[in-house]
Each structure stands twice: as structure tokens, then as C-alpha cells.
Specification:
Blueprint: E1 2-3, H1 10-14, H2 17-21, H3 47-56, E2 64-69, H4 71-82, E3 87-93, H5 101-116, H6 119-130, H7 133-138, H8 141-153, H9 159-168, E4 182-187, H10 195-204, E5 209-213, H11 219-222, H12 224-235
Parallel strand pairs: 1-2, 2-3, 3-4, 4-5
Length: 236
Amino acid sequence: MLAHGAGGSVRANFSPLIPVLSRTRRVFSVDYPGSGSTPRATGPLSLDDLADRVVAAAGDTPTFAVLGYSLGCAVAVRAAVRHPERVTGLVLTSGFVRVDDETRARIDTWRRLLAAGDPMRLARFQMSVVLGEPFERAMPAAQREGFLELMSLTVPPGTDQQIDLVQRVDLGDDVPKIGVPTLVVGTKHDRLITPSSTRALADAIPGARWAELDSGHAPSLEAPTEWIRLVEEFLG
């Protein structure tokens, strides 16, 4: 089961992983309200509701692991707590127990730019926090401009509701209850979710394994091969 991040979608966050994982197992996913083809919610998002949605997307498949990314890590953890009879393992990438002050300030800026209605200015800010500094510095100018244009044109309509939920997430009561094998994957050059927050998530889950990618907050772009390897080895 794939649980995507705020302001993203299953396709945007997991596209390199889906064909590889699908070779040996069934892969399930659902876009949150306001992402992909899922209609925007009529009110604030609930972590419980998102967790129930991703579990429901597995249909009658009795058990499965959940691969969460960013906000999707919180969704995955809550799914494991609410549905322990179905969730058999967790892979949590770029996650957090709760956002720290540094991340909260970045998300406040994200919300202000989103409300201001300037897509290119918003895209420049998103690039500055989503891509790791080494990866961004190495991008050719043409690739950089193309990426900015793509980001400016692909903002999901439910982004504001999703990042509002990020700021409200607190897994303090959930993480001690996790009793399934868990791999937490940090992103070493992350400029959105501070790497120490992801490490704190790993430390809070009993028996969690730890791994780290040499990437920023976009491992599907910066380190897809290594990310896939970590996921495949853990699931295996």
C-alpha cells in the first residue's frame, strides 16, 4: 500500500517504485482528497480518515505492508494502529512524529505563497525545500527551468488542506503502539522535513530499523534506485 505526501499524489511520489514493486507483489494506492482524481474535501482533513482510506483501497486483500512518504508516514502509522490485523509492516520515508519549528516555518511560507496565487513564485520556493542542495546545484539550467514549469502547473487543488494536516499531526501516542517490522528511511539533505525529525521517528518506534538516502525530500527524483533497493530488501 502506497501513502503519498502532502501536495503530491501517488504518481508524483512513487512513479519509479510502482513498476518494480509490481513485478513481485500486488500494489495498492489511493490519492488523498484534492490529489489526483479524488475530489477535494469539504472540510479539514483527518488523519484517521486518510488511514482508513488507504486500508480500504486494499479491498479484500487481508494483509499488506504500507510504504509511507512524508505525510504518508503519519497515515501509515495511524493505519497500523487502527488496523493492526491488516498492516504487517511499515516503510516510512522522510517522516516525523510532529513537525519541529524549522519545518513549521517552511510550511507557513508554503501556505502563504499558495494563498498568494503566484504559481511560479510558489514553484521556486517548493524547489528550494523539496530538492536537496547538492542535487539542485548540479541540475543543468534547462532541466531546472523545465522542473519549475512542471511544478507551477501541477499543484493539487487539495494542497492547502493537506499541509494544514501536516501541521496538526502528532504521533506521540501512536508510535509506541507499533508492533510490526518497521524501516525508517531518512533523507540526508532534506530541507523541508528536518533529518533529525525523521531520526526521532525511528527512535520512537520499538525495534525500528534505520537507513538513510543521499537525497533531499524528493527521493523518487534524487535517489530512486537506492530507495527501491531499500524497500525491496526490507519487504523481502
